[in-house]
Predict the 3D structure of the following.
Amino acid sequence: MTDPAFALALHDIIKRFGSTVALDGARLDVRPGTLHALLGENGAGKTTLMRLAFGMLRADAGAIEVDGAQRRWGSSADAIAAGIGMVHQHFLLVPAMTVAENVSLGDRGIFRGFDPRNAADRVRQIGTETGLVLDPEARARDLTVGAQQRLEIVKALARDAKILILDEPTAVLSPAESQELYAWLRTFVARGRTVVLITHKVREALATADDLTVLRHGRTVLTGMSNQLDESAVIAAMLGTSVAVAGGDAASPLPAAAPSTSVMSLEQVSVMDRRGVARVRNVSLEVRAGEIVGIAGVEGAGQHELLRVLAGRLSADSGKVRTPSRIGFVPEDRLRDALIPAMTLTENLALKDAGLARGTLDWEAYNARALLTIREHDVRTSGSDALAGALSGGNQQKFVLGRELEGSPDALVVENPTRGLDIRAAAHVLSELKSARASGVAIVMYSSDLDEVLSIADRMIVCFGGNATETAVDADAVGRALVGLT
Amino acid sequence: MSGSAVTAFLESGVRFATPLAYAALGELVVERAGVINIGLEGAIICGAFGALIAAGTGSAVLGFAGAALVGMMISAIFAFFVVTLRTDQIITGTAMSMLGLGLTGTLYRTMYGTGGASLHIATIAPVPVPGLSAIPVLGPSLFDQPVVTYALYAIAPALAWWFYRTTGGLALRAVGEHPEAARAAGISPSRVQWAALLFGGAMGGISGGTLVLAQVGTFAEGMSAGRGFIAIAIVVLGRWTPFGVAGAAFVFGAASALQTLAQTMGWAMPYQLPLAFPYVLTLVLLASTRARTAAPAALGQRAG
Amino acid sequence: MSVLARIVRSQIGASAIAALLALAIVALVVAAGGYDIARAASALWNGSVGSSYSFFSGTLVRATPLIIVGLAVAVAFQAGVLNIGAEGQLLAGAAATVAAGLALSAWPGWLSIPIELAAGMLAGAAWASVAAVLKRSFGVLEVISTLMLNFVALYMVSYLVRGPLEEPTHTYPETLRLAESARLPVIIPGQRLHLGFTLAVLLAIVAWWFMRSTVAGFRIRAVGAGPAAAASAGRVSVDRVVFRTFLASGALAGLGGAVQVTGVTYKLCELISPGYGYTAIAVALLARLNPLAVIVAGIFFGALEAGGAGMQRDAGVPSGFVYVIEALVILGVLAVDRVRTYAGARSAAVPGESAA
């Protein structure tokens, strides 16, 4: 059934990955000239649906229509030719290539000439037309995060995208950069173009979008115009319950026990990277028992290195570092840095001792400890001999947290602990952190989700350009410090 | 050292460098697409064997064509495993080299008996370029070589142009740096890698063909003598650019030419020393350049 | 789950399938080459397991270096170190062993033999250390450096047997033969099977126990399967583990060369290794890097090589054919592994691969 009232329409989409059903009859109708927000919590299927629309994946069933005509994509080249452009959550730019080269990628032909000067002119032209200004000669890896996102958008515009899809664009931006982006999107839409915005931030969506669609478990559960929907209805649709989101409110709660002894401290610590650039500059801070210190910072501000110095995984190039011997560390990339997917849970538990232990391994004892960890931290798995890679993200994270808390560490450093977890698993992780705090563990937590970290931290430290400053635990203060205004 | 000794040294340096340059330029394209082909040795020895068989027709052109074809065939097997099945590139490559060496050795014995150097074919003669070959020292070295060497003087600049001035070259480089980004731009990394491997296979085959048709005049088991692996080192030292690779190939050619220089100069040393020199030089040069940072970012990855 | 699926999923099944595939292809090629398949097959059989002589003095004798060097490769691969240089390390070990044996020819066997073997291990480790240092300090890919060193080792042996260590009559490019006391004793009277075989089996058992029951062995496996996690979660010094494993692998390969010299050839010559270092890669992969399985895989390839010699003798098939079989086995294991990964099976043999 063709309906020219929609710029982009996806009907009855079914998509399976092995035995998992990612999309189960999802539907999306986007009116032309609107900003349409696609909402849902992690794992609801938003990115999968839009990757289908962009031709990076193929549906097992269902139809895609562009301007009323049914289309089938062989690859994203076809979608691009039909006027669809996509800005991905994790940018798909070639770091070593220049802006001009990145923009020209995808021009067809094996022997067709490529003139860097023409490409540079094209970039400048788009800059003057749309206000998205970039230096054509700059290498993608040298750009700021905000500039890289601009480049992703320019890439799409260079191919005359009339429908622009953005996947969680504000996840890596500071509040100020987010404002800029939304303002630009509204002018883009005002010129008759269409935007689909994938996000899990309900307030942002209601404030900036014309229409809304909510996905849950791969199905469309709510759709309508944003000025006719209210926040609680949308959240209820996302979660499937009418209970408010767990995790605490925006004001900082009182710590369960008054913080006392200093457990970790840094004095004038600096860390250089391989090229001699200072990633952490003369940072001094102190973390006490029984408190949660929240860290905030946009990508590249230095928190990555700071966290690892605190966790004892990275040595400082100068300054004094005092950390206890027993520190737990829950890094962001759990499949690479925390777990060995090809090994069993028992082996992954033994991994924690691998560096320091000697002699033989008592596998029976490790097995018992693994079973205990699984039970105490509600890890859903077939057993301690299950391969770590076979668990879901939420259960992997629960296991990692349990392993790091096992043996009563004096301190715990966690980095984006709820990344990729659904709301229930995220809430579980946060409540585990609160209990650890209550039992006297000194906790340092970094999250790129400001709301989350503000809801749980006793103190806030913001990283900017390698420096770290302590701010009040509220969104305005942190927001300003994120962009260097203190 | 006399001028003629220098000339002889340079001339044999260019001669030794020719098969290395073919193999290395082919591997350059392959690695720029993100694949490391340790099986290049197999392509070279199979190409040598293919040249021997095709040269039975009496035509050197067919000989080289046969070499390229056989090189492509064995690289196609490698591509099937590494690009289509996504197996580990290093181990698959090692198996391909073993396969190439074993197959050619077995087939040679079967078809031509156990005599090692019993079959001879006429090698193609050097063709002096009128005028240029008269330049002192450089003339005879660079411009009194077989045609297959002259072809290189055109191939290297052509590759450079193609890499940096065509959309195809842009696509190839993108696949080697960030295959997901290439895919999102509508490029198929698998197709690009298949094409690169077929090209690399053809070049490797021609390298082997050069050994048979332009230098030795016969086939011997294992005559590739590790050139495929040296070619990989040449790509590293040439920092993955066409002119850099051509230059590095010449350095290795010169290293191999030391054996002739040692003979002309009458230096007293065990003959194994200059023979081992290219391999030792590879190690030293690989250690001393920090060239690893210039590698294509996605080299060796199993791109999606 | 169907029986077929269960076979494919199990590790043993996968190896068996790979080996069968390889033999099937070989049979095809042999037939295509115009050889009499029946004659070739019976020659293969007789040469490898057809008689007690062919089994003990053919298959098991050839299996001995394959088991030891197979262990060397397996241990390295477990740590993610792609040691393709076992051939060179083996040659270095053989050279050192001969030098020690010739120097100690007056000593009693119980003293000279252990010293010879130790010399072989030290030389193998030293040869590997060149590549290990280049990897650690200069980031040089060990695949290339170990291959280059293989060629250098070949030339070094050639120089030694035509120069400093050449036998006094200067007739052949080889060394003097070792004194009786410096040779490994034969363990079955009337056969050529020597103590090295017992040593190989014992080593495999120790290596198996080491990898699964000690912390050091676990560290090696963790570093190979997940280096970032080993460093971050386990606080393991990945560089140190890699370096030590590399050297251990070289030592084992050197021991393989030492055992060949003291147990079979009793001298050093240019053709002392018909590519054992490369066959060992096939052995290790077919055994899926499991030390106990290396014994079985080593015997399998020993049988192939012994049978291959028989094939050449009786059916005219060139013995170099065995290289082709080995390469096909490696490719077979790789292909079957990828199919199994799609089928969601457990850990693969190839370093760095995971089932997920």
